[in-house]
Amino acid sequence: MISGIGLALLGVLLCVLPLASLLGYESAAVMGAAAGLVVMGSTLRRFSDGRLRLPLDPASPQGPAAVFFTRLPANLALLVAPALLLTLNALRVPNCDLWLGVQFWLVIPAVSVVIGQTIAFAVAVLPRLRGLAALAVLLAEIARVLWRLVWHPSITGHEWLIGYFSGSIYDEALSLPTPLLWYRLMLLAGCGAVVLALEAAWRWRTGRPVGPVLVGLSAAGLVALSISTNRMALDIEIDRDEAIEILSGHLETEHFIIHFDPAAIPPERQPLIAADHEFHYDRHVAFFGFDPVEWRGRKMTTFVYPDRSTQKRILGARSTQVARPWTHEMHIRWSRLGAGSLGHEMSHLFSAQIGAGPLQLPTRGGLTPDIGLLEGIAEAADWPAEELPAHHAVAAMRRLDIAPDLRLIFKPTGFWSQPSGKAYTMMGSFVRYLFETYGIEKLKAVYGAGDFEGTYGREVTALISEWEGFVDAIALTEADLQLARTRYSRRSIFERVCARTIAEQRRQADIATVRGEYDRAQSIWETIIGFESGSADHRLSLAGVLSQSGDHAAALTQVDDLLTWDLSEGKAAQVSELRGDLLWHSGRRSEAAAAYVESLTAGLSDAARRRLEVKRLMTTGPSTEATALAQSYLLGGLDRSTALYTVMQWAALDETDPLPRYLTGLLLTGMEKPDEAARWLDHDPTLSSPALPVRALEEQRQLLHADAKRLSGSLAEAAAGYSALLDSDSHRIARLAELGLQRTAWRRSRQ
After folding, report:
1. Would you report the helix, strand and coil content of the chain in percent, each value rounded to 5?
2. Domain range annotation of the chain
3. Helix intervals (H) in 489-599
4. What are the tens digits of pLDDT across the range 299-334?
5. Are 448 and 366 in contact (CB under 8 A)?
6. Alpha helices in 352-419 (DSSP H)
7. What is the rounded CA–CA span in Å between residue 621 and residue 276?
8. Residues 529-544: b if buried by 16+ CB within 10 A, e if exposed
9. d(C-alpha 653, C-alpha 69), whole Å
10. For residue range 452-480, what is the model confidence (pLDDT) as tens digits?
11. Do domains 238-354 and 636-751 have the same CATH topology?
12. CATH code of the region 238-354
């Protein structure tokens, strides 16, 4: 009775907790841990007070197997009340996939009940200290799981009672993992083997036939052993050695050992990833003022995943890239020189030298890990090129009243409670401010123990107030505010309807679209809209699928309806751009041009603005062969080779037109052909109109030209090109020019 009431009360509590408030993964994991422990404890009490006969008691009229299965239904029934409460809670909190929730509860807490009861039966053979023995068994299992999470690649893990640890909260999409099914089947078979072993011992002790039980014991043991032996092949556990075997490419540089997929990074690309690593290493040495490879006495290790599916298999997350400071290892995806999170993740490995404790992390008082400071120093050290640098982004968020209080982010769970964009940006800005204002030595001193008062002479709250005054004084444009509103208005996973289910369905819709399964993708988006009908994002995605399928009329109807909504400036720009595409498809070029102009009034990313400017230029004026080729290139969904052929045809029509020359150079840059790209991107003074007619396009051409010159070895020309862009009004262009100069100087130093 007490056990049932306790689990029911836990069900009530779950009903008001974000993510766990419905029948799904989070509630299943919590209930699995609770129910497993409750059943284990209550079963042990029944053995102690005589309500259950001890498993090997020769005077018992029933064997332990019969006692076990007689008791099991009552223990499983303890899950009914909390499951019913969470199911009924769907009247208050939408549950978009009840059947998936049922599956998680069958696979996790139901199996945890079996495991808890099995542990109690197993330790009941001991004459005393049964509770301590059971606790020791569980602690040993937890220690095993934690050991794997700490020292092996995967950030997800399987455990007896919670079933499955899903890893990063930023990987929102979640379905029932197949490896979890194999793992729980292995545990059920193991439990069966334990119970049958007890049954066999009792029968042998009482002189009863043992043969049939031994057959069952052998079968159960064989199933458990077979799955356990193949746990890596079944993706239940992939250890470090297996990850290295899957990523069979091996490259060693001055400071790194790099494991990669040789199909994704063939020999001709390997010098690029090596140079990217070493450039970032030297840049971080300059920032931190120390050499962690020299300090630790061994090289850093990088695992480079070729795609999200391989990363999911090994790391356990499709999107999250990680570094573990204490291991000297990082896990990333890398597509090209200067792209991705290489610099950010490397910062974590550098910061290990100033961290505290065995995990070498920032802490509060040497005890509680400070995730905000951990990510803040990585953002501050990497300081990537953005349309809105972190200081400006925070200033805009504060002016728009959408910035969380940084004092809350400094609380133990505060960092995870915010959307990642806000949390990373705000902590990055704050830590960079401390670095720029007080220097790296104080930042290194405060990092390990979090003693702000002892280091800076002031509490962290006073430093935050000082930083707030700094960012509030930054001048912003209306476009900055609009861009910030678009970028930072996303709610955290804890605030969204059916966050897990919708994220997984969005992923499935994207896969279907890539495969050309437009009917399936449309059906999925319509289902998602049924869950969250007020989301402009979902309806815009549906319109995009309709457009790709060729149903431009239906897509235009969706878009025109969206334009009657009260949309943010950024969202309205996206809708207007798609409307322009649809009008262009229909031959209504002048209306398409007007839609593109309307989109350009909003605060946009640099990439979106450049794309819109090209579309606007090609829908203004008379229709020609060039505009037909432009339409095919811009709207045709061409593969890269076909796109290159198309723009080169376009360029051949008029050799004085700088736009197709720029687009050809852009494609060749993406194909890592710097010599050819430089030729197409070159400023040819013989052309009647050598410069692109839009400043954003012209500055991007100049930046790509400087990149191509650097990569092809013309370092003096590259430096001149970068220097000309340092005063650009675009924060991103100016920062990329600064980084380009650093890369040029670094390459000169290596010659």
Report:
1. 65, 5, 30
2. 2-235, 238-354, 636-751
3. 499-514, 518-531, 536-548, 552-562, 569-585, 589-599
4. 999 999 999 999 999 999 888 899 999 999 999 999
5. yes
6. 371-382, 390-399, 406-409
7. 44
8. eebbeeebebbbbbbb
9. 81
10. 999 999 999 999 999 999 999 999 998 89
11. no
12. 3.40.30
DSSP one-letter code for 682: S
How far apart CA 677 and CA 662 sit, in angstroms, is 9
Q: Is the pLDDT of residue 599 over 60?
A: yes
Q: What is the dihedral of CA 166, 171, 175, 177, to 10 degrees?
A: -40
In angstroms, the Cα distances linking 452 to 186, 425, 449 are 50, 20, 9
Q: In sequence order, which residues have a C-beta less than 8 Å from that of residue 451 and are 6 or more positions away?
A: 365, 445
Q: Is the whole model's pTM more than 0.70, yes or no?
A: yes
**CA gap 543, 550 in Å, rounded:** 11
Alpha helices, DSSP H, located in 563-657: 569-585, 589-599, 606-619, 625-635, 640-653
Q: Quote the pLDDT of residue 497.
A: 75
CA 64/CA 71 separation, integer angstroms: 10
Q: 588: Cβ–Cβ under 8 A, 6 or more apart, which residues? A: none
The token duo for 496 is 């969204």
CA dihedral 670, 676, 677, 678 (to 10 degrees): 150
419-429 pLDDT tens trace: 778 889 999 99
**500, 24 Cβ separation under 8 angstroms:** yes
**Residue reference for tokens 């050309």:** 516
| The pLDDT value given to residue 419 | 75
Which two three-digit tokens encode residue 694? 């839009």
The tokens for 113 are 């009940």
Residue 348 has pLDDT above 60, yes or no: yes
Which letter does DSSP use for residue 678 in this model? Answer: H
For the beta carbon of residue 191, count every other beta carbon within 10 angstroms. Answer: 23
For the chain, how many residues are written? 751
For residue 493, give the DSSP letter.
Answer: G
Q: What is the pLDDT of residue 107?
A: 97
Question: Please, what is the Cα angle at 298 between 297 and 303, to 5 degrees?
Answer: 155
Q: Is 163 left (phi over 0), alpha (psi -120 to 50) or beta?
A: left
CATH 3.40.225.10 fits 636-751, yes or no: no
User: Rounded to the nearest 10 degrees, how much is the dihedral formed by the CA atoms of 402, 408, 412, 416?
Assistant: 0
DSSP string across 54-98: -TT-TT-SS-HHHHHHHHHHHHHGGGHHHHHHHHHGGGTS--S-H
* Type of residue at 254: E
